Amino acid sequence: MITGTVDTTQELAAFLRTRRERLDPRDFGLPSRRKARRTPGLRREEVAELAGVSVDYIVRLEQARGLRPSADVVEALARALRLAPDERAYLFDLARQRPPGAAKPATAAPPPLARLVADLSPLPAMLLNHRFDILAWNHEMARLMLDFDTLPPSQRNVMWLCLIHPPTRAMYADRERVLREGIAHLRAAWAAHPEDRELSGLIAEFMARDEEFARLWAERDVKVNGRGHKTMRHPEAGVITVQFEVLMPLQDPDQRLMICRAADDESQSALDRLCAR
């Protein structure tokens, strides 16, 4: 259940449990059990030993009993649980071991970045904030996806379009993968911005309106996806596969510049025809 803000204590507890339970004891060279394990993954005693903390400490963390682990303990837990880099950053965010950002979330594109988005033509490009709100776009991106000017500002959100906007829902050839990657990225942003009530409200809306989002959100995957590909069934141009790169401006680190290029000659020809109309 998503409320007004992130309950970091509860989320930290749930995240630690899920990451402990997904580990295979055989990967750690642990001796086989004399009796079957009642739960999957490592036991709390095993994680405690690997992290160099007491079993009681792990129990209290997983029961959300108000502990705030130090940076050293968070690092030890990340190593013990073999967290990926994005998961490690997520754990540090939940433990409040990163300095909170002073700037408010951007709701409009800074003029220099808006000009850059336009100058990137003929490559499709758009500027997003950490919520996936679309702040600026060029002509090519509008032709590839849709004319964002026709939408109210509240609907200019990549995740909202993928989940709720019927034409966009049907556009992605591999929709579940796109959705899974987007949710994993959104979860990292949610932990990094616990004060952002608008983001929490957006996630609550998605959970209430889309069963698939609720199912994937509950898996607690965390991954900041800065590079990849998407295949789209465009209603005018047919199948187009693009490779994308996401860049973060140093001056505006909570914004993301997404740049796309055709992944093959057929997709390039389709993009050329589409943007020439």
Keywords:
5 strands, alpha+beta, 434 Repressor (Amino-terminal Domain), 277 residues, 5-stranded antiparallel beta sheet, 2 domains, Beta-Lactamase
Which secondary structure elements does this structure contain, and how are they paired or packed?
Elements lengths: L7 H14 L22 H8 L3 H8 L8 H10 L4 H10 L16 H9 L5 E5 L4 E4 L1 H6 L13 H7 L1 H4 L5 H18 L4 H13 L1 H8 L8 E8 L3 E10 L7 E8 L2 H12 L1
Antiparallel strand pairs: 1-2, 1-5, 3-4, 4-5
Helix pairs in contact: 2-3, 2-4, 4-5, 5-10, 11-12
Walk me through what this model shows:
The structure is a single chain. The chain has 277 residues and is an alpha+beta fold. The protein folds into two domains: 8-94, lambda repressor-like DNA-binding domains (434 Repressor (Amino-terminal Domain), Orthogonal Bundle); 111-276, Beta-Lactamase, CATH 3.30.450.180. The chain has helices at residues 8-21, 44-51, 55-62, 71-80, 85-94, 111-119, 139-144, 158-164, 166-169, 175-192, 197-209, 211-218, 265-276; strands at 125-129, 134-137, 227-234, 238-247, 255-262. It has a five-stranded antiparallel beta sheet with strand order 2-1-5-4-3. A hairpin with a 4-residue loop joins β1 (125-129) and β2. It is elongated, with a radius of gyration of 21 Å. It holds the Pfam family MLTR_LBD.
